[in-house]
Amino acid sequence: MSATGHSIDELVGNFELLGDWESRFAYLIDLGKELTPFDPVDRCDQNRVHGCQAQVWLKIESVDDGRINIVADSDAFIVKGLIVVLLAIYSGKTSEEVLAIDGQAQLDRLQLASHLSPTRKNGLYAMVQRVRELAELEKAI
Amino acid sequence: MSVIDASIREDFPVLTQEVNGHPLVYFDNAATTQKPRTVLEAVQRYYEHDNANVHRGIHELSNRATAAYEAARERVAQFINAPDRADVIFTRGTTESINLVAATWGDANLQTGDVILLTEMEHHSNLVPWQLLAHRTGAELRFIPVTGDEGVLDLANIDTLLEGVKILALTHISNALGTINPVRDLCSTAKAIGALCLVDAAQSAGHLPLDVQAIGCDFLACSGHKLCGPTGIGVLYAQSHLQKVMPPYQGGGEMISKVEFQVSEFNVPPHRFEAGTPNIAGAVGLHAALDYLDGIGLQAIGQHSFELAHYAKERLAEFDGIRFFGPTTEHAGVVSFVLPEVHALDLATMADQQGVAIRIGHHCTQPLHEKFGVPATARASFYCYNTRDEVDFFIEVMQKIIKLIR
């Protein structure tokens, strides 16, 4: 369960119920609105994830009992929605669990690929990479 | 009203398709244009009948390929009113044309303290090659500023800016703003102090009649693919007297007259600058594209794109808080904007769901966007085959998207 309170199974289930692109994007945008925006000070270069066409910031909020709580923000709504999906997959897991997850396979379960351009998929990949790097760092501590 | 009839859409096979269940609305013409059937057929015919390597061949096919390639050079010279076909160097596109000038003329002629004058609205392709040159030679980069959102050049201090300038390189039409720069006046002002002038015509070639002699430039660069021609073929117009003293760009076949193990003698221009087997089919396709555009008329094409952009701006002004970038009156067929609370990426992603292709981002003019304080703008850019109906559909699509987001 991530900071926004969604599990990936729940999100996949909801996406399956949605038919056309409009309802899928409307749902994604609504999910994005649940994210708490970063303070301006956290919208910094250090937290910036490059490779997305929108601006994305991502950081570790806290580590409880080895479980890494991740938070992220963006200036685009669809990206914020995708961040909620990403956090549902990765946040609140231990670094071992994060590194064991097949992120691509989880994202594929949403069947969003046909709606997302390859450039954006690269952006998602950049976010996944950042999460994995942070998990590697945590593991090394 | 435009003199171009919507029936010309039938000349473009790609436009007949549906994207995501909607008829394709292609508004990304500043990035690349679609190709008419005559261009596709010319390329196909060349490969089916005449394909061979050019120059020095003795056989029939090589003669035909050489004739076709050189006829394309002649046609380009005519299209831009170059005094001589030898003034036309074929390249891969505008980017390579500018890199060629920076690497050959630039390396041979610039030194520490010399100034390269650009503008703040340059595409990265007319900025980065000069940055590299400045780094190699110690020359200094200077920029003609752009006024606020209306995006025109601020020429108030042009005389001061021109001090010590060896070359002025500027865009004819801004890809991000649609601004049409006064290249003729600026070339004449720059030449008065002995500077050379390069015009980046990537966005103007195929959109308005070009006349290098009237403009008075020393170099002019443009791309085939932005004027209905194939990708991978472009043009550098360079005055013959400059070509004669410019060192070679790349080494290889075609560009030499005599090769020994230690040294070589180089071919005469323009062949000196066309190392290796050139893009012959590209040149043939470009030739067909120029014929196609002249058949419609460049004045008419420019007017048509301007009218569509003007109409699009009128319609887009219906959206509260929209911020336009670019001139309000005279401009090319480009509309750039941002909407409050709607990221350009969200807009373009959902527009694509309805078959509308627009571009978002910094449009390869990152420093300009930094200046405007926006990370990304949305851009719709028009060409001869676009229609008012398509603009109306785009507006409907935008209304739907904004409803979804807000």
Question: What secondary-structure arrangement, pairings included, does this model have?
Answer:
The complex is a heterodimer of chains A (141) and B (406).
Chain A: H1 8-17, H2 21-33, E1 48-49, E2 56-64, E3 67-74, H3 77-90, E4 93-94, H4 95-100, H5 103-108, H6 118-140
Antiparallel strand pairs in A: 1-2, 2-3, 3-4
Chain B: E1 18-19, E2 22-23, E3 25-26, H1 37-50, H2 60-79, E4 88-91, H3 94-109, E5 115-119, H4 128-137, E6 140-144, H5 158-161, E7 165-171, H6 183-192, E8 196-200, H7 212-215, E9 219-223, E10 234-238, H8 240-245, E11 256-259, E12 264-266, H9 280-296, H10 298-316, E13 323-325, E14 334-338, H11 344-352, E15 356-357, E16 359-361, H12 366-372, E17 377-381, H13 388-405
Summarize the entry for a quick read:
The complex is a heterodimer of chains A (141) and B (406). Chain A is α+β, with helices and mostly antiparallel strands and 141 residues long.
Describe the protein.
The complex is a heterodimer of chains A (141) and B (406). Chain A has 141 residues and is an alpha+beta fold. Chain A has helices at 8-17, 21-33, 77-90, 95-100, 103-108, 118-140; strands at residues 48-49, 56-64, 67-74, 93-94. Chain A has one domain (8-140): Alpha-Beta Complex (Sufe protein. Chain: A), CATH 3.90.1010. Chain A is built from six helices and four strands. In chain A, strands 1-2-3-4 form a four-stranded antiparallel β-sheet. The model of chain A has no long low-confidence stretch (mean pLDDT 87). Chain B is of the alpha/beta class. Chain B has 13 helices and 17 strands. Chain B has a seven-stranded mixed β-sheet with strand order 4-10-9-8-7-5-6, sandwiched between helices. In chain B, strand 5, helix 4 and strand 6 (140-144) form a beta-alpha-beta unit. The two termini of chain B are 36 Å apart. The model of chain B has no long low-confidence stretch (mean pLDDT 96). The interface between A and B is medium-sized, with 17 and 16 residues.
